[in-house]
Every structure is written in C-alpha cells, then in structure tokens.
Amino acid sequence: MTTTRRRVLLIEDETLIAMLLEDILDELGYEVAGVAAEFDDGMRLAETGTFDLAILDVNVGGREIFPIAEKLAERNIPFMFSTGYGVVGLPMEWQSRPVLAKPFRPDDLEQALNRFFPV
C-alpha cells in the first residue's frame, strides 16, 4: 500500500531557512512541492501549483506576501505565515491564521503542521 505524502509549497527568500524547512519537512514525511525565493515566482506557484499547504515568509524580497495569501485563500488552499514578528506583526485580517515564529525548532514546525493535518 502506497501512501501519498502531503505536498508543501515554501515561499521563503532566505536560502538557509528554506533549506532547513525542506529538510525538516522531508524528515516529517512531507514532500516539498516547490520553493519560491521571489514574490513573482511565489505568486505564479500560488495561482497554478498543486500542493496541500503553503508556508509563507511574510516579507519576500522586500515585498509583503499578503497578495499571495489572498490568492491561496481564494483557492481554498491552507497556509501559514512564517515571521520573526509573530502574530502581532500581521495585519488584523490575517491574525487568525497560523504563524510559525522565527526562529523555530523542528518541533515547532511539526506542531504547526499538525494543526492542518492531525496525526
């Protein structure tokens, strides 16, 4: 019996953080569906990509990620924000969304993922 791994899109402009997220996701049994380090690439993937969840750095290349979050919400694709400012750093309309606070540990990411995909 083959089980399909959940696919996660990463939008993160810090290479080391993206690599860390990729490694942790792989260890937790997830597949990385794509990584975007630039806003336009992230928007393109958000509009057309096939994945189960997205992790969005709040600031990518000096641009806020919220238009991409809106696109994901329109497509009913779950997502979480990743930021060093926590939930208080988000505009009010996004503060109900899950946040992976930077710096994070593997357990923090696992707990955040479990909110979407309970084990």
UniProtKB/TrEMBL annotation:
Pfam families linked: Response_reg
Coiled-coil annotated residue ranges, if any: none
GO BP: any one term: phosphorelay signal transduction system
Positions carrying 4-aspartylphosphate: 57
InterPro entries the record matches: Bact_response_regulator, CheY-like_superfamily, Sig_transdc_resp-reg_receiver
UniProt keyword list: Phosphoprotein
Key word Iron-sulfur present: no
Domain Response regulatory: 7-117
Protein name, UniProt field: Response regulator receiver domain-containing protein
Annotated source species: Pseudomonas duriflava
